[in-house]
Amino acid sequence: MSADLPAAEISHAMPGRTRLRISDRRGDAAFFASIASGLSALPGVHKVEVKPLTGSVLVQHWGALDMLSVAAKDAGLFAVGEPPPPEPEAETEVELDPKLLFAFALGALSLWQMSREKFFPPALTLLWYATNLGGLWRNGPPPEGE
Fold first, then answer.
1. Is the pTM of this model over 0.70?
2. Cis before residue 121, ω within 30 degrees of 0?
């Protein structure tokens, strides 16, 4: 990449449509006006939209993006750099609280007992244990940290 040309990053590309970001010149309306007129004059470019406030350049073009990049560099407009590699997504580990799992199981058992029309004592006892384990009822002082 040439040191005297502003660096442009490809933020999105698909056949015939490319969005570039020129962060170094963000807010420079005169620069982006010259980019718009310079890109519009290139062969294969049929529409250019610039947003100086965000440093964005949207180019609708025919042909390969590589040819557009070379033509923009040859015209002295900007040099297209490689996009930064995507950041790896953080793996989210789901930790299940054993008490909540057990409370869920007891709740399911209480519903099963209710479906068998055995409300007293199996269903209500299981439901009571499930709600206590699930933290719905508090017996005694709250745990430390709350």
1. no
2. yes
In the structure encoding, which two tokens stand for residue 50, read together? Answer: 């610039």
What 3-state class would DSSP assign to 116?
Answer: coil
Longest dimension (CA), the chain: 86
Neighbours of 134 (CB within 10 A): 16
Amino acid at 140: G
- Helix, strand and coil content of the chain, in percent to the nearest 5, comes to 40, 20, 40
- Residue 41 near residue 51 (C-beta atoms within 8 A): no
Domains with residue ranges and CATH for the chain: 7-81 (3.30.70.100), 98-133 (no CATH)
CA distance 60 to 105: 58
Find out whether 38 and 110 touch, Cβ atoms under 8 Å: no
pLDDT tens, N- to C-terminus, the chain (146 residues): 455 889 999 998 888 899 999 999 999 999 999 999 999 998 889 999 999 999 999 999 988 888 888 888 998 999 988 655 667 777 777 777 777 777 777 778 777 777 877 666 667 777 777 777 776 666 555 566 55
Which residue is associated with the tokens 């040191």?
A: 3
> How far is 16 from 59, CA to CA, in rounded Å?
8
